[in-house]
Amino acid sequence: MAKVIIPTPLRKFTENEGSLNTDGTTIQDAIKDLTEKFPELKKHIYDDSGSIRSFVRIYVGDDDIKALQNEATPLKEDSVVSIIPAIAGGIK
Amino acid sequence: MSEIQFSKEELERYSRHLIIPEFNIEGQRKLKAARVLVVGTGGLGSPLLLYLTAAGVGHIGILDFDVVDETNLQRQVLFTVDDVGKSKAEAAKIRLEKLNPHVNFTVHNVQLTSANALDIIKDYDVVADGTDNFPTRYLVNDACVILGKTNVYASIFRFEGQVSVFNYKKADGTFGPHYRDLFPAPPPPGLVPSCAEGGVIGVLPGIVGSLQANEVIKVVTGVGEPLAGRLFLLDALTFETRTLKLHKDPNTPEIKELIDYDQFCGIDGDKQNEKKIKEVTVSELYDMQVKGEDFQLIDVREPYEYEIANLGGELIPLKTVLNNIDKISSSKKVVVHCRSGARSAQAIEALKKKYGFDNLYNLKGGILAWANEIDPEMAKY
User: Fold this and answer.
1) Is A17 on the interface with B (CB under 8 A)?
2) At what angle do helices B366-373 and B282-290 cross, to 10 degrees?
């Protein structure tokens, strides 16, 4: 089962779970699985046209899915998927 | 570089650098010759400025337009209680000059804007970005790309930190990936909470800002491998760290000029939306209470915020507002408030749009304005 690491800003939509397991065998399946369990996640990952939002990156292991096979990137049993959102914090 | 000389005091001060074989006096000379701009003197800026000053960077620019506030002291270790109310950039300079008299400082007590960014940044070799908002993040990035400067980036949220070295000039003269290769566009306002809304554990900017200072020193001295083309992630809660690859995105448009970053980040639209919503000021609310007017007060913050300070309003957190319309009066005047007025505006907007409420008033400036103008005993957060 691949593991998906949920970043802090999105944990309020996953009942505070920091990581979730998925049976999905591709990124597309894994995110579908995730957004079915936690529907509020969807609008934070996809835009209205169904593309991954411009302020979110998805990684498998240490590489960006854009450098792999995008949403068709296959997942193995031990794959670790990271969702990386833009965060702006610093001063305040 | 050999023209850079050190006094006896400097040689003694930097001796722990000089005896590192790969750093030695050459590394120290490069530090002394360097000009580094630190944008933001807050949570990240504090460790950045302290360590870069202690390490002997020759010229440091300190940029911040804000004043020191009580709520800063939980993590902004540059400042003391005596600094509250003073200019951050000026207070930082006074503190840092005591730490290392061999460093020259330039204070930029201004807000970085599209009008002044190129002029300020052009005089520096490296920029360290410790700002707290998306418009300034994109502005710093774009200015660095236009001017060919390295942008040492860090960002934090609650327990999580991100660090990278953007637009790093490689030996072959080409530049590494930058912020827009990672995030082409910012999230719309309201979708991602700010630190002021989401909170941050005080020591996190200390950790992450120190990593950022280390990268600045590596970039300046050429010692080690800077975090260019890589993104470092830290979750201080689980102590999981990841270092991910960053690629240049061929679809990233060429940056030729600076733009209106508030508009790019959708902030103008947000402000206009807030304007369309009816408002009451804190003094109007106070009058309504004193006169015993019949109205309902709703607080859309979270329960843990309510515990810090409250106005006795009915607590209906923003995300539950649409499921609790039976608790909201549709006949009498309803004043909705949050911490600063942004979430209550969102709540009113949503209630108007979905259920057609037209009796809702936003408390301008939220409970913070109340603490500032009506009740000085109330805790601000």
Assistant:
1) no
2) 70
The pTM for the full model equals 0.82
In whole angstroms, give the CA distance from residue B131 to residue B195.
Answer: 11
Range of the domain at B350: 277-373
Provide ipTM, 2 decimals.
0.91
* B230 and B334 housed in the same domain: no
| Three-state secondary-structure class, residue B299 | strand
CB A92 to CB B243 under 8 A?
no
- Which residue type does B85 have? G
Q: Does B13 map to a domain?
A: no
Sequential pLDDT tens for chain B (381 residues): 668 999 999 999 999 999 999 999 999 999 999 999 999 999 999 999 999 999 999 999 999 999 999 999 999 999 999 999 999 999 999 999 999 999 999 999 999 999 999 999 999 999 999 998 899 999 999 999 999 999 999 999 888 999 999 999 999 999 999 999 999 988 877 666 555 566 788 999 999 999 999 999 999 999 999 999 999 999 998 899 999 999 999 999 999 999 999 888 887 655 555 557 899 999 999 999 999 999 999 999 999 999 999 999 999 999 899 999 899 998 899 999 999 998 999 899 889 888 888 899 999 999 999 999 999 999 988
**Chain centroid to CA A43:** 12
- For an interface test with B, which of A17, A42, A92 has the most B Cβ atoms less than 10 Å from its Cβ? A92
Asked whether residue B381 is domain-assigned, the answer is no
